[in-house]
Amino acid sequence: MSLAYKDYYKILGVSRDADAIEIKKAYRNLARKFHPDVSKEANAENKFKDVNEAYETLGDPDKRKKYDALGSGWSDGQSFRQPPPGWNGRGASSDSLRDIFEMFFGGERFSGEGQGFGKRGFDMGDMFGSHGERPVPAEKPREETIEIKIRDSYYGSEKMIRITDGGKTKKIKFKIPKGIQEGERIRIKKALKDTSGTGADLMLKIKFSPEKSLKVYGNDLYASNFVMPYDAYFGAVVEMPFLDEQLRFEIKPNTKGETKIRLKGKGLGRGSGRGNLYVTIKIGLPDVLSEKEKELLKEWKEHRR
Predict the structure, then answer these.
(1) Helix (H) or strand (E) holding 57
(2) Could you read off the pLDDT of 197-243 as tens digits, one per residue?
(3) Domains of the chain and any CATH numbers
(4) Which of 52-61, 92-101, 130-139 is predicted least confidently?
(5) Could you give the CA distance from residue 279 to residue 262 in angstroms, rounded to a whole number?
């Protein structure tokens, strides 16, 4: 059975003269991209294994040198049954094979000319790193729940949290995207230390702080606004404080208490998925009345008898 040659440089997406820093950077990017716990790529698990396998060889100067020597002149699609250029038509001699195997594994792996493989045999997995020390895959993101105000989601904002990492407290700044909903998560890449040295991601799960004047249900917001009895009866354009704004909207004549007014597109969310603001009309009086207003109310009361 032949074993297809794997081009580790192609797997990592680097040139053959790439330095150690380029190789390590390429490995980290691909390991994050294809990690089975987080990747949505097709066949991610196998690609992740190939990336680890490639880095185990190219990331080690000794192994890389030996890999280059063995693979020199080979092209994609060939196998180890087809010798590289320069080998004779009858294939490699046992001396040539011994040189190659000893270069990788030492003399104990090959047991003399013409006698084939030794007691332990030749494990092709050794050539491709299945038994060596593998790079440690990225750890799963750490998740924390944070409370934000509704206005933080409505307008978008920037926040800072203090979090314990490796026994120390650190400050982390992050942005809250406009329209984020309760239960959604913000990923902060490489925010924390991990055992692999690449850095672990931090996931922040969003929870809204309770507010008396404003409620959230999905993308929709709910509030209430008091109007004077004459505005409710005759109709009016009223103003209402809302987060960092003053909203103006119309109420129709003879509006009853508990009527809901819909203000389209003034809820949470993004683009066409943005919700609405529903304002419940309450009919009431100011906390403080002038003497003239009190007299008018008494006159109205007498008139209604």
Answers:
(1) helix 44-58
(2) 677 888 899 999 988 889 998 889 999 999 999 999 999 999 999 99
(3) 8-127 (1.10.287.110), 142-208 (2.60.260.20), 215-304 (2.60.260.20)
(4) 92-101
(5) 6
Is-contact 71 32, C-beta < 8 A?
Answer: no
User: Among 236, 284, 240, which residue's Cα sits nearest to residue 266?
Assistant: 240
CB 184, CB 204: distance < 8 Å: no
**H-helix or E-strand spanning residue 151:** helix 150-155
User: Which tokens belong to 125?
Assistant: 């997995």
To the nearest 5 percent, what fractions of the chain are helix, strand and coil? 30, 25, 40
Q: What is the distance between the alpha carbons of residues 181 and 196, in angstroms, rounded to a whole number? A: 33
Rg value, the chain, Cα: 35
- What is the overall mean pLDDT for the chain? 77
